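Exercise 7.
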Amino acid sequence: MTDNSLVSSGIPGLDSILDNLTKGDNVVWLSPSIKDYSRFVTPFVKQAIHDKRKIVYFRFASHENLIPEECRPYVDEHKLEAAVGFESFTKEVYSEVERHDKGVFYVFDSLSDLLYEWVTDAAISNFFMVICPFLYKLETVAYFTILKNYHSFETISKIRKTAQVLIEVFNREGIHYVHPHKVFGKNSPTMFLPHECKDEENFIPIDNSYQATKLSSTLCSVNRSILNRSLDSWDRIFMEAEKFGQDRDKQSDSEIVNRIIKALMGRDEKILSLVKKHFTVNDLLEIKNRMIGTGFIGGKAVGMLLARKILHNNNYEKWEKQLEPHDSFYIGSDIFYTFIIYNGWWDIFMEQKTDEGYFSAAKKLENLIMQGDFPEDVQDEFHEMLDHFGQYPFIVRSSSLLEDGFGNAFAGKYESFFCPIQGTRDERFEDFIHSLKKIYASAMSKDALNYRIERGLKYEDEVMALLVQRVSGSYHGYYYYPHAAGVGLSYNTYVWSKDIDPDAGMLRIVMGLGTRAVNRIEGDYARIVALNNPSLVPLSDKDNMFKYAQKDLDVLDVRSSGKHMISFFMLDKENIPFDLNWIAERDFETMRRLADSRGKNKDIWVLTFNRLLKSEFPSIMSDMMNTIEKEYECPVDIEFTLSFLDSETYVINLVQCRPLQANASDAKNIKVKKSAGDKILIETEGNFMGGNVCDYIRRVIYIDPTKYSKLSTADKHEVARKIGEINRQMSGEKKFYTLLLGPGRWGTTSPELGIPVSFSDINNMYGLGEIEYEAGGLMPELSFGTHFFQDIVESGIFYLAVFSTKDGGFIDSEYFKETDSVTKELVAVSETVKQALKVIDFPKKTLYLTSNIKTQKLKLFIKNSS
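Solution. The predicted structure, written as tokens, is:
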């Protein structure tokens, strides 16, 4: 330290014991009351004023002001709200300290008071472990207090290890004592003995065995009368909650229960009101019993639990029989903070919260996280959880504070990882830890950070909790998978036929792991189901059901980490663990041709799900989603698995549920009068998503299908990059009135199937159109339930697919090819790319897009100027 000058506490007797304070000291008073703490704060402040020191008082507690009235004009009081949560509170203190010069003196209100809002001791110790080293580096002197018998031994131990000075205060029969437990860098024969406070000048050590034993026995007697003094505040508040038992009326009015809900289930007020309505004290206690660490369990975990409770409360007998039970674990959000602090990365974490470091510091953290370690006690809890799952596969899923809330799904922005390995305990632990770190690192990914900016969440607290779920399914040799899985939407935002009722909902279903239902898989197809008419198929594949069927499935291989793809046709169907007829049927035509041409008789199965869709399954799923939607008061998006117990019986596992931000069918009512002279550019029946609209378009970005299909792979990626550049240039009015048209699938990772953009490359577009180009193998795909789909829905981007070879489909490709382009005015492109990428601007109120859900008609047309 550059300045080793001594500092007076304002109490000569205490200075004598401690050999004064030293710049850099964080002094923690372990006090029986605020009054006892105040006895030492007052002289410290007065002495500091006398010595012309700058003093800052952090005021956040409900107790009385610690600064004497006559001293307040000389003290800079900084008010804080504990209710903002650990991260925002700590960031504000950190920023305020950073704003001041070295050598400033600080007084903090009682840290124990933070427990009312934060509930958990881990947050208190984490706060101190962040702030204390920072103050030490700035050569300050700071006073803190924690109240005795409020905190666990573990919390006090962490604070003691971090502080420079820890002094216990107690009194016996009106006599006050101080007992220094730690004084960094100093020692004396009597320094660490209890001292009787005779007066300010005389602090007398208890230096003989008779007095020491008498004092100690009295104190032990007092302490024994205080129950649970070694428990974390988190444990104590749950113990208090148990007192309410099954008295539901009492629970609703309980301040304790409300505090638990707020501390455990997040900050989304709509979600919290539903939790309060549907959860009992016992439900909350069950969550706590399956929790590692403390803090929030995150949006994904809350969504799953809430949906299940809504169903059980609606019809317990039905859903208890139909739903597969779960034994999930929850890794609390405080573990994430502890991990950051334990590894010494808080400075970088704070840097990431600034505009300058938002991306650069995030990149540092993303790399560092993979190298970090967890405290030993946390690792022990992880081991216990892994012992519970044994050799069964499980999945570690992101469950951040903001995830799966109203308006913010974060779909596909954070990672989830399967852990199927059946190796040794150490091998399974290593696989789990690696997955956990990758999820933590994904919170710092560029996609996630851009999403937060787009959703106005850049400055909101976002902390990662984790949901650990047993994977539903059964073994098939070395493979493990659910028999079917998928996603469901309670409101069908893509209505491709007049026979579809949007309110009945829809499914996207696959065999095997549901990863093939939530991601666009190149060259493979999920079964799309309109729940009011399950036999109906989308226009794009009704002519050839088998051609557009699922061909591969994702499974877990217990010999290696992660998921694996296997061909359905290569799967051993003789020993499949359920009746395959439920989800597949034989392709007799192909079987006949194979027998005729090669003389081979072999069953050829195709995944159609027809028998399952003729059962009660569609009705069950529709009822499930509509029941949840009614409580949410908005459409919902779910993920599920289905497992057969025998040849006729199956159970459904509801693994995720979140609000779906879909446009209602009456969302827009703008009128425009059409005339015979209007020039039609696109016309289609069905195959659009975004409600009833009538909007004018200012710009069309058109990718010529013929020219695009002939580009090299490198040039196709260049097209995607240039679209991203144009997208990032757009703001204000143009952001909402640009229509993007291109062949095949937007958001594909394979350029031969479409345009390989990421969502951040098209997020400013008004609309997105996929054009059929059969000659080049470029076909639109209905991507309900995929993460790309979720991004489109959340951002209110209109979607259309143009099948010009099908009924009612038309696109005037020649118009787009021949009209002048302004591409080179916007981005630098090669001549080859320029031929494929055209940007066409239109005068105001010239080009209109209209759609009508009831008639299933969509038109893009140029209004007749006359």
